[in-house]
Amino acid sequence: MVEPQMTVTLADVVVKRRGKTVLGPVNLDLGTDGFTIVIGPNGAGKTTLLKVLHGVERISAGTVNWSLPDDQARQAQAYVFQSPIMLRRSVRQNLSYPLQLLGVPKSEIAHRVTHWAGQIGLEDALDFPAPRLSGGEKQKLALARALIRHPKVLFLDEPCANLDGRSTREIEALLSTATQAGTRIIMTTHNIGQAERLATNVLFLLNGKVHERGTASGFFNAPHTPEARAFLKGDIVE
Amino acid sequence: MTDIWAGIQAAFRLILTLDADLVEITLLSLQVSLSALVVASMIALPFGTWLAIRRFRYRRAAIATLNALMGLPPVVVGLIVYLLLSRSGPFGVLGLLFTPTAMIIAQVIIITPLIASITHQSMRELWAEYHDLLISLNTNKRQRVITLIWDGRRTLMTAALAGFGRAIGEVGAIMIVGGNIDHATRVLTTAIALETGKGDFALALGLGFVLIALALVVNLTIHALSRTEREGTW
Amino acid sequence: MIRSILALMLVFTTQLHAETMKLAVTTSFNNSGLSDVLLPEIKSDTGLEVQLLIVGTGQAIRLGEAGDVDAILVHSKPAEEAFLAGGHGTHRREIMYNDFVLIGPAADPAQIKGSATAVDALQHVAKAKAPFVSRGDDSGTHKKELSLWQATNLDPETFGPWYKAVGAGMGASLNTASGLDAYIMADRASWLNFGNKAGLELLFAGDPVLFNQYAYLPVNPARHPHVKTDAAAALEEWLVSPKAAELINDYKINGEALFVFNAKP
Questions:
Q1: Which of A51, A70, B78, B89 has the fewest beta carbons under 10 Å from its own?
Q2: How many CB pairs under 8 A join A and B?
Q3: Mean pLDDT split into 10-residue runs, chain B, 234 residues
Q4: What is the ipTM of this complex?
Q5: Is residue B52 part of a domain?
Q6: Does residue B29 fall inside a structural domain?
Q7: Which residues does B contribute to its contact with C (CB < 8 Å)?
Q8: Looking at the complex, does the CB of residue B88 fall below 8 Å from at least one CB of chain A?
Q9: How many Å apart are CA B127 and CA B157, to the nearest integer?
Q10: Rounded distance, CA B60 to CA C167, Å?
Q11: What are the structural domains, with CATH classification, of chain A?
Q12: Which domain holds residue B51?
């Protein structure tokens, strides 16, 4: 299958909320592959940047240009929110919902649902109400529900916040598999160790701006800016 | 107290003997109010949901109007429907006055705002919960409305039952547009008003108990049909 | 679930249709119980299913004017004549009469028992300022009561709180009077059939001015082409027949006759 390339260009993007600038101006090019980690202190604009890229945040100025038309671009993306949003339905119905929206044939839906339920260890809980799963299970289900569409780009907002080590590792394994399958991942995290394990490149955000960007090895071993150095050391960065 | 006791006895006598008139007016009550419920729900559920997810200029005004319409006095609704359906009114040629259809129309007008308003309230909460996900999944408006209605069906059932309760217990409007005609448009509430007028409190009260029992049975049946109690854990 | 509701509605909507006509009648006629005797006979003799709209005379006349019924059976001559003068009806046929009675608390604080005339009795009530319930609903009974007050040269508009215009039907007004231990004017039939008499009793009757003539008026098809003229004519023919005369004259409650048939053939 020949897949069109998914690249994105942000030009002078600014997001204001109640008159206050929460992001920007940002100028950014993101390539077609890799695992980008967005890090930075709270309020740096990480979530806002993800939502702008996904096209669900209203921007006050500038342009966001995907290499595909807007609706196709959104269709090829998936987003996992910081606190997983469960449909008030069974696990099975949560997994099949995005496929039903796309009009995927029933047999194909059943096949993929079984596969992904197995991937997240919920194959025995297919008819269990999703809102009653544990926090870790919900997060894994949200991830599987995102990946089941075979997105070209996957956004993750702190997918492992509030999870224990075991669940975190399971999610990381799923993400590695997805990257190998060709999914471009852009993820925020506060967990530096996780960032080092997963990232191929890094965006360091500070006060709504991209303060530093680089390859993962370059950034973690030799950050250019004093603020990035301080952040990696765990100091408070203003 | 003796009147209440006599009423309870009358209710049992009517039910146990399956009094033919009682069966007839009970069935008509059900027919009118269930029909009104179906029509009102078909209007109110999508409308209330749409109101919850759609931002537009006069949204607040629309919601305030809806909430005000919930308090519409049935008698006024009845009078307006009467004037519209009267042979001398704009829809007189249809010949609907003093028919069950006229009663259904009046009840639809009375309960639609109620159902729409409760729908709007509960759908607003659900929409706040689902908003980011449904936007992210690139759903269109129709898909959003369907998803919200389906996943909120338990609260919507409550909204519909509230509407049904108001419809089946309503007397002011259907008395005017139905005319309380024996064997044609007499329902439980108008029969109760009639018997009260005759001073036959025992029979009136007996019919009242039948009405209460009926409302209870319908509620339980709908709950059982939709199996909401079993799924009611989430 | 929706399917079962639809199925239920389908079952309900298959109703049989005999030839029907709509007749607006006064509450007093229906409360008397006479309609329960007459309607089945009408059905078996003429095949007509008469649907009764039980309202006050005022509303019955409005229904006739609007063409919402095929005929009216009421008891207020001035209103009936105005109805005919307005071209709303074809003609007026007198059918029967009953009478009005004055009801009040058994102790009779206004001393109306034994009054010479109805007007005299009402004057006693006004003088004693004893609680009096008026229909106040523009019905035939209400109009009759007002005409009696007019004869006393007293104006109910100027009465104090003892005069209570309740704006309700005969039964509801009797309930109110019963609750307040008040005087009230009622038609004899409604009174005899009334189940909640409590401390009230019949105190005055018999003055010819209290006679209450019922008349049948078919709605004018020239005004309302949809009215069922034939059915209305068939009903009229039955109402003035010897059989109707017998049923009406023989109708008794507690051994008391209520109506006197007086239709001219």
A1: A70
A2: 40
A3: 79 83 90 95 91 86 90 92 90 89 95 94 92 90 90 88 91 90 89 83 86 89 68 47
A4: 0.87
A5: yes
A6: no
A7: 27-28, 30-31, 34-35, 38, 86-89, 92, 95, 97-98, 179-184, 194, 196-201, 222, 225-226
A8: no
A9: 17
A10: 40
A11: 8-81+152-233 (3.40.50.300)
A12: 36-226
